User: Fold this.
Amino acid sequence: MIKCTVCGEENEELAITCTKCHSYLQAKVDTIDLFPAIWGLIERPGLTFRRIVLAKNKNYVFVLLMLLGIAMSLAAFSYWQLGRRFPYGALIGIGVFIGPLAGILFGIAASLLAKFVARPLGGKGNARNLRSVLAYGAVPVIFLLVIVFPLEFGIFGRYLFDHNPPPEMLEPTIHYVLLALNCLGFVWSVILYGTGCAVANSISWWKGMVPAVLVAGLVLGGAIVVRGL
Assistant:
């Protein structure tokens, strides 16, 4: 809670103006600057997510979600070994084409789920804020798309999608190094998302991790189930 210095009224943690006297409780944030926000996620993630939540205009959220969708699509195609059924060039094209829509739909669904799960834990965040922290929390995964995926594709080519032979048999050391980077990026994104959920819901960090871990678990579980079909 934030106590107004003018009238003494208790206000919500993320309130900009006092509900009683309408005095400013904290500085307004009109827009989000992308690159300072990305650096802030590395240096001071809690404070950065607070600025993201308080921002009036949620800049770049849908762009980040679209990139996240592409990353998730290509990772799924590789994990499902769809290169055995379709040309790898077509899979990349499909991922780039449907990934943005998939990312936006995922962001909407995940934010609604996070809102529902956080309510019993005392969460007060709205879907818009939760969608924005998901988008910015996905920055490590987006880095993997931009930096690691081109390396993987350049080294393994079509074998990245058909696993015939598996990448670990072609270049085991490189494969496991890149796999470790992918795992670290994914875990980092989950931790960032949990931190963002905690800020957006005005709850403790461990409570914020609950919806983040649930969303991540559903994504991984869904991928495993589809592969088994």
